[in-house]
Specification:
Elements (H helix, E strand, L loop, with lengths): L3 E4 L5 H6 L7 E4 L1 H5 L4 H9 L2 H10 L1 H10 L2 H13 L4 H19 L2 H12 L3 E9 H11 L3 E5 L1 E3 L5 E5 L7 H11 L5 E6 L5 H5 L1 E6 L7
Parallel strand pairs: 1-8, 2-3, 2-7, 3-4, 7-8
Antiparallel strand pairs: 5-6
């Protein structure tokens, strides 16, 4: 079967699944804006801090935000936010906060039409993978709740005392990095059965997919 790209409407899903080959394969979903209605990391940062602390942090991030307007480097901006809000937080604390956040926000964030597509692929015994630029610790409870076979995400770094350093362990998981990390896990010759995303940072991943769903999910909880 040739490649198919589905753009703009989840109404195409019925036709898509009717002629999909029902065998196991790897299906990759971006998280923020694809499975969810908005960015999970910024929502998490607002959720875990007081209004005053969040406002102060945003003021301190102004230089990084200004730099982003010129260089477009999302990784640098995200790293600055991690340093500002999370540096020094113990692993046990951040993991507990992430679990509570997911319990509270999954019903508010996850798109119903995206979940239906997720379940369709699960019924076909596909390996379901979330591939996201958001931090692994924040997305992990959502991935467990969805029964994902794997989570590929930006990894946060910890020091010898198991506290967040404010940096990354590796690169920001966006663009070509998504393909690199997928092939690390599933092999250098990986071809995805399908990929779903909503930004330019997903397009490299979608290029290695037989079926491509770009901005197809529209529903809100």
């Amino acid at each position: 079967m040739g490649k198919r790209q589905i753009v703009g409407s989840s109404d195409a899903m019925t036709e898509f699944f009717d002629d999909a080959v029902e065998d196991a394969g790897v299906v990759a979903f971006d998280f923020d804006g694809t499975l969810t209605t908005r960015d999970s990391f910024t929502t998490f940062l607002r959720w875990r801090t007081t209004f005053a602390r969040h406002k102060l942090g945003m003021a301190r991030l102004a230089p990084a935000a200004t730099s982003y307007l010129f260089d477009g480097n999302r990784g640098k901006l995200k790293a600055a936010a991690v340093r500002e809000y999370l540096a020094g937080v113990p692993r046990e604390q951040i993991e507990a906060e992430a679990r509570t956040f997911a319990q509270d926000y999954a019903p508010r964030l996850l798109r119903p039409d995206a979940l239906r597509t997720w379940r369709h692929w699960r019924q076909r015994r596909a390996k379901l993978v979330i591939v996201t630029a958001s931090p692994d610790i924040v997305v992990a409870p959502f991935a467990r709740g969805l029964g994902a076979d794997a989570l590929i995400a930006t990894e946060l770094a910890f020091d010898g005392s198991d506290r967040l350093t404010g940096g990354f362990n590796g690169d920001n998981c966006r663009g070509p990095e998504k393909v690199y990390r997928l092939r690390q896990v599933f092999g250098a010759d990986l071809r995805l059965k399908a990929a779903y995303g909503d930004t330019s940072g997903d397009k490299d991943m979608m290029k290695i997919a037989d079926h491509r769903g770009y901005r197809v999910f529209k529903e809100h909880p």
